[in-house]
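Homework-ish question, so no full write-ups if that breaks the rules, but can someone show me the predicted structure for this set?
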Amino acid sequence: MAALRDETATARTIVLDVPQWPGHLPGQHVDVRLTAQDGYSTERSYSIASASMDAKLELTVQRLMDGEVSPYLTQTLAVGYPLELRGPIGGWFVWDPDGGSDPAGATAPAAPTPVLLVAGGSGVVPLMAMIRARAEAGNRAPFRLIYSVRDPSAILYGDELTKRERAGDGLEVTYVYTRSAPPGSSVPTGRINAAVLTSAGWPVEASPAVFVCGPTGFVEAVADLLVRVGHDPRAIKTERFGPTGGQR
Amino acid sequence: MSDYMDGNMLAGKLGELFAVDVTAAVGTCVSCGAAMAIAQTRVYPHAPGMVARCPTCDAVMLRLVRGPDRVWLDMRGVTSLQVAVPGD
Amino acid sequence: MGIVSPGFSGRRRSADERLPPGQYLVNDFPVLSAGPTPHVDTGKWEFQITTETGQTHRWDWEAFRALPADEPTVDIHCVTKWSKFATHWRGVSLDTLLAGVETSAGFVTARSYGGYTTNLPLADLVDGQAWVAYDYEGEPLEAEHGGPARLLVPHLYFWKSAKWLQGIDLSDHDTPGFWESLGYHNYGDPWREQRYWGD
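A: Not a homework solution, just the prediction itself:
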């Protein structure tokens, strides 16, 4: 590990120096394996948070109270420690700044396809990789992120998202607070509903590519709403974290 | 009820066996005929092994067990797999 | 072996001699499942024993609950390495259930609502080694832990204790079940650490 950056009181980004990293597509993940002295080992999957052109690989890990791996990654792992990982993995839940999200590589549409990102809690991590990659590649596809959190203290990458939005290159961010919102929030406190998806998302006629990521229950509810609002199910890609975030 | 994840998490283990990414491949459920990307199957990871079920009818499509020195894979629940490869 | 992670010890693995090799102790009761939890109405529930000659013995919920029951306290061991000591159950012993059944079969396939199967030698189900359990820790067994009733065979890895038990089929042939046909050990003795085929 090369460096670390605490994102919130319970989430930390670990920055890894990975020799001969082949590069990755935003949305892909790595499998991290921890091994104890006696040979006991366990694995978890973590989405890559960094854009591929970054020099180092970044993972953002949410510490779970009764977790086995996340407490190690967010509290014990220190600069200079080795970390065993396998990847990049995953060809489905990806957005390619050089060609959109069709793994077969469809010809580029006349205008860049708008993209809707819907994040539940730490589900924002792979979507952040997409936002970062878009900026680095100078891709102009209009991006809208709807990010659902309990309250403002749980927001990952808050300052960075604000900065990127202000850069005015086509990223818009809307927060949905399920427990308590800051004063002046434009969206009613509570779970994402069809109204938010319509007002803060893209109209169905825009035929956006949609990525939804978060806990299983969240993803199911949002995907269901999107289809009911009229979005094409084939344009919706989902990644479900278990309650423990990709446990094996 | 929502105690499953999705086929995205199979990518690592399947990647040990296949040269191409199988999670983006389209599989057909032998039970109901529904076609979907393997990434969209419902994966129950907390069993002794991994079980991927059809999101439409819940039939078992794929089972995978990772032992200390071997992998067992059963795909009898998948009629066929369609994989995108680079064109000629 | 992978690269050792400095400072990582994982779940506490005790040296308790009541633990079979490779296991660790838990205080909660993990839920492991190969599929969605079936919800079986006790009004429709039925338990069957089918012999190798095709004879069937059946009990509905009322009849089953009227049978003499035991309250075993046992240690359980899951192949995914967690173990739990002194779990309390209430259920009907397989000796009671098989008392009126004529059979010379050597093998059993246990079948669950939802399609799961597991296989065992009949010899491992009798002589006080197994029950069909419907209460856990004094309460009706929850669906996510296998209720209305599950098989309980504590001397083998817990995947043999089929949840949502629907019936057992007696046979002269040994037919590997759901996990046994995919690399898990056919017998599954935790004390000999028989996790995988070939162990």
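Now go work out the reasoning yourself. Hint: Chain A touches chain B at residues 29, 31, 43, 45, 86-87, 89-93, 103-104, 215-217, 220, 237-242, 246-248 (CB under 8 Å).
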